[in-house]
Amino acid sequence: EPEVTQTPSHQVTQMGQEVILRCVPISNHLYFYWYRQILGQKVEFLVSFYNNEISEKSEIFDDQFSVERPDGSNFTLKIRSTKLEDSAMYFCASSLMGTDNTGELFFGEGSRLTVL
Amino acid sequence: GQQLNQSPQSMFIQEGEDVSMNCTSSSIFNTWLWYKQDPGEGPVLLIALYKAGELTSNGRLTAQFGITRKDSFLNISASIPSDVGIYFCAGHLQGAQKLVFGQGTRLTINP
Fold first, then answer.
1. Which residue, among B43, B50, B9, has the nearest Cα to B29 in the 3D structure?
2. Which residues does chain A have within 8 Å of residue B98's beta carbon, measured at their own beta carbons?
3. Residues of chain A with C-beta less than 8 angstroms from the C-beta of B101
4. CA-based nearest distance B104→chain A, Å
């Protein structure tokens, strides 16, 4: 069964460092997303991406964050200068159709980011 | 922003018991979804609901989309040990790309 894959599974970094989290969405999907989950809390939307541009972003997704689809398969989330409060599990998701067209999201297993 | 209030926050039950959890919102959603999250993994979709009043089953799971479009419930019948995990409701607003998640219900089952 096709799945969303994420790397790394866990990254530890120093405050102020740049981090890139990588995702390989399901191959025929067109919509891509990043969500995050602070330990013990709910899953929060960060950004959606379609047709090589951001289609929606939350207030969490400030200038420190960026997303890119550098080739036909990868989808990355970059945090330029990490803060302690960026420590969380980051989930990539993809869907064939957009959620505004009842597209179902498939989530990866997540990348745990720990900022020291 | 939009909020989903999910309850209960946690449940401790005996194997074989039925389980019920629900989500409410002050906003109208056009889609309700229920996800399960196992430790260290991403959410996995259990049931998706697209119409107000819709009642949908998936094996031992049954979910309903409230008539007012502001609530949904999930029932699990005859619970088994592999049902342990965190269950999240999620709602989708018309015209938006994002899903709004509830706070989760942590289910623990005593054998």
1. B50
2. 33, 45, 48, 56, 58, 99
3. 42-44
4. 6
Q: What are the angstrom distances between the C-alpha of A84 and each of A16, B15, B73?
A: 9, 40, 36
Res B93: pLDDT? 82
Question: What DSSP state is assigned to residue B78?
Answer: S
Chain B: residue whose CA lies nearest to A41: B103
* Predicted local confidence at residue A81, as pLDDT: 95
Residue matched to tokens 């109208």: B28
Q: Do A107 and A93 touch, CB atoms closer than 8 A?
A: yes
Task: Report yes or no: A99 and B97 within 8 Å, Cβ to Cβ.
Answer: yes
Q: What is residue B92's predicted lDDT score, i.e. its pLDDT?
A: 87
Q: At residue B100, does pLDDT exceed 80?
A: yes
